[in-house]
Design a protein that fits this description.
Elements lengths: L2 E4 L4 E4 L6 H8 L17 E6 L9 H7 L9 E3 L10 E6 L1 H10 L9
Parallel strand pairs: 1-5
Antiparallel strand pairs: 1-2, 3-4, 3-5
Length: about 120
């Protein structure tokens, strides 16, 4: 069974094949933004895939176009709503500052942890 680890939050969640990183974050309670509701219309679910990128679907042209609008895009940047887990193994991600900020703006009732 695939597993997604949200590194800085120390959250791990088992998921079924076909699950997106954004869906995994919701299942595990990780603070990943999703201002557009996960339809690839914004970049608030931007994550860095630090392990297991080869277990994910390939990025589409649409995803890459939206990532062009994100902040601090890196080699292993993905949109959590588009990165679908296609093979068993561990996918370890770091939620970007942009995504964390979006999450806490979208959920003012959730207290942001001290850094």
């Amino acid at each position: 069974m695939p597993r997604v680890r949200f590194i800085e939050q120390a959250i791990e969640v088992d998921v079924e094949l076909g699950t997106t990183i954004l869906q995994a974050s919701k299942r595990g309670g990780a603070p990943e933004g999703d201002a557009c509701g996960g339809v690839c219309a914004c970049s608030t679910c931007h994550v860095y895939v630090e392990e297991g990128a080869d277990l994910l679907s390939e990025p589409s042209d649409e995803e890459e176009d939206i990532l062009d609008k994100a902040f601090d895009v890196r080699m292993h940047s993905r949109l959590g709503c588009q990165a679908r887990i296609e093979r068993d193994g561990l996918v370890a991600v770091r939620i970007t500052k942009e995504s964390l900020d979006a999450f806490y703006n979208e959920h003012p009732d959730v207290k942001r942890p001290e850094r």
